[in-house]
Amino acid sequence: xxxxxxxxDVVSKRSKFAYSVGHIxxxxxxxxxxxYLLVFYHRVVNFSNASAGYLLLIGQIADAISTTxxxxxxxxxRTGLFHYGRRKTWHxxxxxxxxxxxxxxxxxxxxxxDSDLWAQFIYYTMFIIIFQFGWSCSQITHLAMINELTHKxxxxxxxxxxxxxxxxxxxxxVYTMASILLGFHPSNDETxxxxxxxxxxxxxxxxxxxxGLICMIIFHVGLKESEQLAEETEYRxxxxxxxxxxxxxxxxxxxxxxxxxxxxxxIWMCARVILNVTQVFLPLYIIDTISTLNRxxxxxxxxxxxxSGLLASFPMRTINKRLGRKTTIIFxxxxxxxxxxxxxFIFDLKDHLQIKIALIxxxxxxxxxxxxxxxxxxxxxxxxIGLNTECGAFVYGIMSxxxxxxxxxxxxxIQQCNxxxxxxxxxxxxxxxxxxxxxxIGVAILTIxxxxxxxxxNIGGNRHEIIQExxxxxxxxxxxxxxxxxxxxxxLIA
Length: 494
Known about the structure:
One of its GO terms (biological process) is carbohydrate transport. Pfam families: MFS_2. The chain is mostly helical and 494 residues long. Helices cover 74% and strands 2% of the residues. Strand 2 and strand 3 form a beta hairpin. It starts with a strand and ends with a strand. The model is unreliable at 1-8, 239-244 and 465-494 (pLDDT under 50).
């Protein structure tokens, strides 16, 4: 007997919109974090390259640890604060932490800007840890809600696409504001960032927090999460019978025994490493490698990348349906590889116009590639969780742990080996050329190999236990009993 719950699988337009803007505060702050953290702490606060890299590493480690904790505790939470909803309660905690700490991360040390650098390092570290804890609270719970809002594949891809589209739009907004502020702020050096530009970062931070707060209000008011949501998900899991048997109940330990869990985590991690490494070092590549361009291009170039990424996210649902997740990811990685080749050859160009055109084209290709790979990696994670939403936040937490730790270590190593000083040199120019070319290429190749290893794997589709005939009959009887007791709340179709 096959039992199907006839609950609505299609998420309403209002709920889709409210959900999609629920990560904008994180997206806006993350855009500044990855794009301008090294620039701000090295060129404005005057930390060394290594110290700036360590601050980013500390933040990534704090985020990685927090994601694991939040994922585990969020799954254990039943109703949340005052029955507000278990996911939205943790999300709200994250919003409060981000708003209260992020403005201090991109502002000169209050009452201590003339103190020793080690004292300022501790000052920034405290606020960075609070910010990263809040960021992880919002990110993990927001991702975990996808599988609880719907178990329909197309709807999950749509929610991931809308979520990523707003993420790209957030980056576009940050780079647009940065280009305006950099373009209109008076400076003695039109090609570099100096301590005199501290007010630009302070203003940009307040804009980010203000816009993000408005979007968080829309999310918390517009999207309802109640106890019934968790109950319906639990009920669906109990009744899910297929021709292969009954769907297994998963614990966090059960996921750790699945090979596909590690494969999907690796793909997720690689997609984020490509995105974040290029995002972090693109401004430095423009300042030190292509030193002839105006400093406003540290905002214009990433802006072009994210505009192309936004446009690429719209047809993603259709492309996924026709080509499949794995083919689509490889398709996106090809765009990423093409962009890295351009980044390598831009250094050899002499004509000013040719440099601008090649840079913009490389950023457009990079935007399409990173947008495609990230949306598909999120969708693979959703496939892995499937109907087993009882551990959804834990799965996202571990995947986020892996990508945060990997990004932090990679960027810290790059900064530790960084030969650059405040004065640009040929050696420095070549260094960022190597970083922006060979790291994305190497990670992309590893990703392709991992995708080939799961090419014929049905992600999340093999969690069924064979049910004996007697058990099947008993289960069917239990279903009928439940139907009689609450037919209006949980209609069933046999």
